[in-house]
Amino acid sequence: MSVLAPCVAAFLPSRLLAHVKHVFADEPELLVASSWEELESFIRRKPVTAVILDPSADGTLNVSAVSGLLKRYPSLPLIAYVTLHAPAFKAIAQLGRLGLEDVVLHRFDDAPERFRERVEQVQGNSLTHRVLEDLSGSLRLLPRQLFVTIENLFQQPHRYTSALDLAMEGIAIVSVYRNLDAANLGSPKRLLVAAKVLRGFGYLRDPGYSVLDVSIKLGYKTARIFSQHWVSVFGLTPARVRNRLTDDDAVESILRWIRAAEDDSSLLDDHNPSGVRVSHRRGHKKREPS
Question: Taking 70 as the threshold, does the pLDDT of residue 253 lie above it?
Answer without folding.
Answer: yes
